[in-house]
Amino acid sequence: MSNFIEDTIVALATPPGIGAISVIRLSGKQSLKSVDSIFHGKIKLSDALSHTIHYGRIISDGDKTIDDVIVSIFRSPNSYTGEDSVEISSHGSPLISGKIIELLVKKNVRLAEPGEFTKRAFLNNRIDLAQAEAVADVINSRTEASLKGARNQLDGMLSQKVQELRLSLINVSSFVELGLDFAEENIEFIDNSELLKRIQQIIHEIDDLLSTYSFGRVIRDGVNVAIVGQPNVGKSSILNYILKESRAIVSKIPGTTRDIIREEVSIDGILFKLFDTAGIRFSEDEIEKEGILRSREAIKNADIILLIYDTGQEFDNNILTEIYSLVHKERVIVVLNKIDLVRQKPTSDKICVSALTGEGMEDLLKKLISMSMGSSNYSEKSAIVSNLRHYQCLEKAKEYLGHAKNSIYNKLSGEFISVDLRNAENSLGEIIGVVTTDDILNNIFMNFCIGK
Q1: Of 105, 126, 147, which residue sits at a domain end?
Q2: Nearest in space to 83 (alpha carbons), one of 134, 44, 29
Q3: What is the pLDDT of residues 390-408, one digit of tens each?
Q4: Dihedral angle at the C-alpha atoms of 275, 280, 284, 289, nearest 10 degrees?
Q5: Mean pLDDT value of segment 150-165
Q6: Same domain, 267 and 292
């Protein structure tokens, strides 16, 4: 691994394809020397100061000009990776960037793996592991909320809280382990009641973090919304209204929607993934039956279900009962559509709308937002858990602390308590990378784009 990290690496940092410019990134001890071997400018890059920009030409082995470029210098340790780094800005031709990378590879520069620049930033202590994962979330953010959430993590809000919990655990563990060292002298450094109090306080703070996961997942991944109901109640019309475009076919003929239509829309910064499903009814049509089967699967996997009724039809409780058998009723919003034809008054458990005129649709959108946000008092200064790996690490830490409490209640020796406290500390350490394995690192960084 050490020799692998000693390599100088190169990758295209901008998206492949034609554009105004392409940026080629290098990192490693030989970055400056390698670029110097193909760059002709006023000075040698090896003599240049950090955070300076230089104009010149990239020259091939046959002294042919490949392109006019701008080269940016970032010297260790003041670079993204913590190593000497160079960024070459060329004209945005895939042919040009490919030729430049090819020249550098001939100079014993290695092609970077996915996420390797960020991985080096982590290994060189420029960022911790939770912040490294946030880099990918920033890149992949698609709404204002997801960007703010990723930025929150990248700025170290979660890392700071986790580190505080680790230090509290280390402090508690030190008293337990001191007691073990002086067991024969019967010296007690912390009594059981105080030990239980401190462990319980840490568990309480972990619970506070765990409680943010539902909201954190929403701002990171979005909300799955299944639009369901009997045929011809206006499901597709409601989808089209929310999207502000005619995406689904609207017809008076029942059973028009045979398959699930998937669309995404941002509402108040939250990403909603909308699933317009086939109307639920008894049918002998094989294609429609398959569509209805898929509708039921969409309901099971949805975070929120919009159950649409036609106000001109008799309210059928059977479909409501069926949906409640698949998901908890708190995830269901009952919507009465077509109030432009038959007036209805909204109630606490039903929203009345007209997808044709737009009446009541703002109330529906507000309901979607409020259900998605839950009771979270989100602040940009709050630590938010949005990553499943982090959630599982916190759950493990809490479980070990529970074992430690049981050991105290059962008056077991300090060795049992110490092991559980140490395991809890390690579980928290996995979040920020204090404790990690190659498998964890590889799994995280393989999902990054090359060049980041």
Answers
A1: 126
A2: 29
A3: 999 999 999 999 999 999 8
A4: 30
A5: 92
A6: yes
Taking the model in full, what pTM does it have?
0.81
**Count of domains for the chain:** 3
- Residue 179's Cβ-count burial label (10 Å; 0-12, 13-18, 19+) is buried
Q: Report residue 389 CA to chain centroid gap.
A: 10
Residues 7-32: tens digit of each pLDDT: 999 999 999 889 999 999 999 999 99
What CATH number does the domain containing 330 carry?
3.40.50.300
